[in-house]
Amino acid sequence: MGTGKRGLIATAVTVIGAVAVLAAPGTAFAAPSPTPSPTASPTAVTNKDIEAVRKQLDALYHDAAVATDAYNAAEEKAEQQSAQIVALARKIVKGQEKLARLKARAGAAAAAQYRSYGLSDEAQLMLSDDPQEFLDSTGRVLQGQRATKALIAELTRTQQDLKQYAADASAQWTKLEANRKAKATAKKKVERQIAAAEKLESQLEEKEKERLAELEEQAAHQAQTAWLDSGVLKEISGRASEAGKAAVDYATTQIGKPYEWGAEGPDSYDCSGLTSQAWASAGKPIPRTSQEQWKQLKHVDVKDMRPGDLIIYFDDASHVAMYLGDGAIVHAPRPGRTVTIAGAGSMPILGVVRPDA
């Protein structure tokens, strides 16, 4: 390859943006040594150039993962708000039906009172053939008056409830529209980041792509080796719970299926789509996104983790994987990859959470 191609790669790297290190996951938790790259000729794209491309790809895919989390969160909220709007609409319908019944009862009560009180009490007593019956009916009238007041109070409460339901539905609709816009914005960012990464990668020839894969494997190998060398596995001895076993079984059954951002299976997954569906299949629903999984689930020390626990990666909690034991994870890595097993230490660990704590 001539210097023109090398200049093209260098230009592409510069144009894409700043470098953000995100070690791509490897394929072996025991961290086997990667195959050394061949020495490049003076005019070829060097390992240094390919390493710069790798880091740029990592940065782009990391940003895509963050945007994917934002998309998933907006989608989840939109679904919740849609369900709330439907529930409020049902309440409004029931409230209107109740209000109609109450108005009918109130109308009947008013008509009865009108008929009863056309004459004064004294006149009704004078005209009555049975004074005791009149007195008894007077007691019933008093009871009827109290019932009428209760009816009016219930009617008023129902009207107030309907007004509140309508206000709540309007507020939920406003939030729904906002989350739809947030979802659309996140979608555009995901697509933009992935397109930029694919464009950058497409500028490599096959041999260069092979070298890129070797460098990705090497970065994962180094990170996993450093993690294992810390002696962390000597402290990890937790056994999976029954729900954890079920979640692990589900996740590992998905190995080989493609990564697709926003996907929750059954044919493809993104990282949190895989973990959330795995735990849902185990009877323990958890939040949809890696960031909410980090926020809402119980945190446990790395040394205390057990199979089925979720490892959250990077400072912004933008990636999640399921721990399998023996230093291994199963996860959906990124676009262009499939659900796979990797080393638990192949990416920067933020922390560990337990869905069935």
Radius of gyration, whole Å:
33 Å
Helix % is 55-70%
Strand content: 5-15%
- Name the assembly state: single chain
Number of strands: 6
The neighbouring-strand order within the major sheet is 1-6-2-3-4-5
Counting helices, strands and paired strands, the structural category is alpha+beta
- By DSSP (H or I, 4+ residues per run), the number of helices equals 9
Morphology call: elongated
> What is the residue-averaged pLDDT?
77
Distance between the termini: 56 Å
**Biggest sheet character:** 6 strands, antiparallel
Q: Indicate the low-confidence ranges by residue numbers.
A: 1-28, 37-43, 118-127
Helix and strand run: HHHHHHHHHEEEEEE
SSE arrangement:
Layout: H1 3-16, H2 47-116, H3 121-127, H4 131-202, H5 206-229, H6 232-235, H7 242-253, H8 271-281, H9 290-296, E1 298-300, E2 310-313, E3 319-325, E4 328-331, E5 340-343, E6 349-354
Antiparallel strand pairs: 1-6, 2-3, 2-6, 3-4, 4-5
Helix pairs in contact: 1-2, 2-4, 2-5, 7-8
Write a structural description:
The protein has nine helices and six strands. It is an alpha+beta fold and 357 residues long. Residues 1-28, 37-43 and 118-127 have low confidence and may be disordered. It is elongated, with a radius of gyration of 33 Å. The chain has a six-stranded antiparallel beta sheet.
Can you summarize this structure?
The protein is an alpha+beta fold and about 350 residues long. It has helices spanning about 5-15, 45-115, 120-125, 130-200, 205-230, 230-235, 240-255, 270-280, 290-295, and strands at about 300, 310-315, 320-325, 330, 340-345, 350-355.
